Amino acid sequence: MRWLDTPIDILTDKQRLASPSLWWDGLSRPEPEPPLETAITADYAIVGGGYTGLWTAYFLKKKLPDADVVLIEAQNIGHGASGRNGGWLMGTLEGLSAFTDTNGKLPAAARAQLNTLVSRAEQVLIEEGIECDFHHGGCVLAAARHSSQVIRAQETLAHFQRLGFTDDDYHWLTPEELTARVKVANPGGAVFTPHVARVQPAKLVIGLAHVVKSLGVRIFEHTRASNIAPGFFDCDRGTVNAEHIVIATEGYSEAGSPLHRRVIPVQTGMVVTEPLSDIRWSEIGFHDNETFADFNRAATYLQRTADHRLVIGARGNYLPGGRPKHTLGDTAFIGQYRQQIALDLFPQLESVGFTHNWGGSVGVPRNWHPHVIYDRFSKMGTAGGYIGEGVGASFLFGETLAGLLTGESSELGEMPWVQRRALGELRRWEPEPFPQLGFKATTLAFGAEEWLLNRYGESLAARAVGWLCDQLDPI
Ligand SMILES: Cc1cc2nc3c(=O)[nH]c(=O)nc-3n(C[C@H](O)[C@H](O)[C@H](O)COP(=O)(O)OP(=O)(O)OC[C@H]3O[C@@H](n4cnc5c(N)ncnc54)[C@H](O)[C@@H]3O)c2cc1C
Fold first, then answer.
1. Cα of 253 to ligand 1 centre, how many Å?
2. Which amino acid residue places its CA nearest to atom 10 of ligand 1?
3. Which ligand 1 atom is the nearest neighbour of the CA of 251?
4. Domain identity same for 411 and 439
5. Do the domain assignments include residue 110?
6. Residue 108 falls within a domain, yes or no?
7. What is the CATH number of the domain that holds 404?
8. pLDDT tens track for 79-105
9. What is the mean pLDDT of the chain?
10. Are both 68 and 31 inside the same structural domain?
11. What percent of the chain is modeled with pLDDT above 90?
12. Rounded Cα gap, residues 251 and 9, in angstroms
């Protein structure tokens, strides 16, 4: 299985020494936090050092400055998806249909929370001095290759309208308006939303950890929590007693985390071009640093970085046994697949070099929508199940969870994604290999549709497979 384990072979000798991830390449990491080597007590203990754990710690200390909060991370801060992602800070959640009221609309208060999320996050980043290349340029979701994508784009817009969002939130761009923003090979129109910002993910996670530490949170790295029970858990060389416990392990939930097999890891990742010249950018657009996706089934996500590279993200694979992806570098096969997506969208990139290729795991819950869960009896909570849309959501969910943990009564605690029940009630995935077979079948159907479209255009066969894909991956 070459494509599972072979590192990509597109780097120059100099770059080979660098990180496979652009985000960590040349970034000076802070001194590592010590591992936990004793028995400690705390008011609040958080397991997982990604955005969810860190935002929860941040808002806890903002609400209760004197509270004793500890954060335990199995590897290093940002080891999981938070240090690897595509840097779309989005004012939306995956699976919004699950949160509608009896009229099929998302409650107005929930829409307001989502629509203001990006600006509220920006405000906190400014207040706390977290420099992470934040740019609020919105997002273009484009029909950019086959005409069937136009229908999917229009259905997506109709979906947001049915949920109650207005034209200010999601509106249509004609092919000409799309081209004025991003010059794809085959513009068919697009949905534009202002509710997305670009960030540099590793700078965000490091900056946030720095702020959280300066607020007095005790952080322990290279410390794996296990046997997590109400009020107590073990670590490799220590123990933690805490009245309240938060599980923030998301797509990296393995044996020892109560979320193991309830939130499973699915891979995605990205490739990056070398820095592009102004002339090249005038050929492809992104003048307002918009984030960009097309309606490819590969679930693409692109951003223009602060150092003028194009980052192209797309779906990855499913590791045997449902394991999370701990290594950073991705395989040559996957890297070339993502490069091909970039070239199909932007033939202008033909002679451009690609410098990095990496991936990571997103967390997928069995019911396919994210959650904030708090159980006031066991005093345990969690947030996640983001299905690859957690950069912005973790800010919202971290604040929500902190409110629930401190017993605060607020609008956030009444949002439809909040569940007051035991973590153990979160549905388990079927045993392996069933999830793996399901993901493989879905990937095969997506590949077959792509192949048919490329070879025969919008044929009957492509439409039939497209229908099947729609059932597997509904809007
Ligand atoms: C390649 C990629 C691209 C993505 N792009 C985007 C994007 O553009 N926009 C977006 O919104 N979302 C994106 N996502 C998803 C987003 O990054 C995640 O939803 C978000 O980072 C989840 O944060 P988290 O803190 O919940 O989990 P994570 O960041 O995964 O953190 C979980 C942490 O828990 C630790 N841990 C696990 N078990 C234990 C244990 N037993 N003890 C102690 N620590 C433990 C892990 O080491 C890990 O550091 C992407 C994800 C990936 C992988």
1. 10
2. 389
3. 30
4. no
5. no
6. no
7. 3.50.50.60
8. 999 999 999 999 999 999 999 999 999
9. 93
10. yes
11. 85
12. 27
Structure tokens at 350: 């033909």
What is the value of pTM for the model shown?
Answer: 0.95
Residues whose beta carbon lies within 6 Å of some atom of ligand 1: 47-53, 72-75, 79-82, 84-88, 90, 224-225, 248-252, 254, 256-257, 268-269, 301, 313, 359-362, 384, 386, 388-392, 394
pLDDT band, very low/low/confident/very high, at 350 (cuts 50, 70, 90) = very high
How many domains, in total, are found in the chain?
2
Nearest ligand 1 atom to alpha carbon 78: 49
| Domain presence at residue 205 | yes
pLDDT at 8 over 70: no
Residue in 152, 441, 421, 457 with CA at minimum distance from that of residue 262: 421
Contact 256, 226 (CB under 8 A): yes
In sequence order, the 6+-apart residues with CB closer than 8 A to the CB of 407 are: none
Does residue 4 register a pLDDT over 90? Answer: no
Output the CA 259–ligand 1 centroid distance in Å: 13
DSSP 21: S
My answer on whether 27 and 85 are in the same domain is yes
> Which residue's CA is minimally distant from atom 52 of ligand 1?
85
Atom of ligand 1 nearest to the CA of 387: 19
> Token pair of 392, please?
């912005």
Asked if residue 229 lies in contact with residue 241, where contact means CB atoms within 8 angstroms, the answer is no
Tell me the residue ranges of DSSP E strands in 196-327: 196-198, 218-220, 225-229, 232-235, 238-247, 263-273, 291-294, 301-304, 310-315
Measured distance between the N- and C-terminal CA atoms of the chain, rounded to whole angstroms: 32
Amino acid present at 274: E
Atom of ligand 1 nearest to the CA of 316: 1
Structural domain boundaries, residue 462? 432-475
Q: How far is CA 312 from CA 118, 170, 292, 344, 372, in A?
A: 22, 23, 9, 12, 30
Residues 27 and 83 in one domain: yes
Task: Report the separation in Å between the CA atom of 388 and the middle of ligand 1, taken as the mean of its atom positions.
Answer: 9
C-alpha 186 to ligand 1 mean position (Å): 34
Query: Quick one: which of 85, 113, 294 has its CA closest to 195?
Result: 113
Distance 197 CA to ligand 1 centre (A): 18
C-alpha 336/C-alpha 425 separation (Å) is 41
User: Is the domain of 43 the same as that of 71?
Assistant: yes
